[in-house]
């Protein structure tokens, strides 16, 4: 389906952040420290729970990550919004991986449920994004997906109806 591979290492993700993977003016990941994954282990345009595409990625957790010092001093917890942003990042990445043009923008999310925390003693987050819709028309390019975040195998975030669009403006 895509001209790109089905997995990406950190160097590939940094190329995407610099605009070198999908080309200038197209989907980019944010640069560190806002890049919320270290590798993408699986990606498709027709897999996942609904057969409309999916992404699986991992983020290594270490006690020296930037957000632990400030959120909260003496009680370090990864902000839940960063896990949500990681899911949005992967949703937009999938649209670029499909070869669809434009810059990615998060449009919203239907439901977010946080059932656990990411503390410095965790080792790895696993993101799982499953598309429910992938739309490309003359006027609209958008992905709608559900996602989960696991910390060391335990589901800690459940997200429904994330929306990311690509825009050429």
TrEMBL record:
Its EC number is 4.2.1.59. One of its GO terms (biological process) is fatty acid biosynthetic process. It is found in: Cytoplasm. Keywords: Cytoplasm, Fatty acid biosynthesis, Fatty acid metabolism, Isomerase, Lipid biosynthesis, Lipid metabolism, Lyase. InterPro entries: FabA, FabA_FabZ, HotDog_dom_sf. The keyword Cytoplasm applies. It comes from the Bacteria. SUPFAM superfamilies: Thioesterase/thiol ester dehydrase-isomerase (SSF54637). Transmembrane segments: none annotated. GO terms for molecular function: (3R)-hydroxyacyl-[acyl-carrier-protein] dehydratase activity; isomerase activity. It catalyses: a (3R)-hydroxyacyl-[ACP] = a (2E)-enoyl-[ACP] + H2O. GO terms for cellular component: cytoplasm. The keyword Lyase applies. Pathway: Lipid metabolism; fatty acid biosynthesis. Belongs to the thioester dehydratase family. FabA subfamily. Homodimer. This is 3-hydroxyacyl-[acyl-carrier-protein] dehydratase FabA.
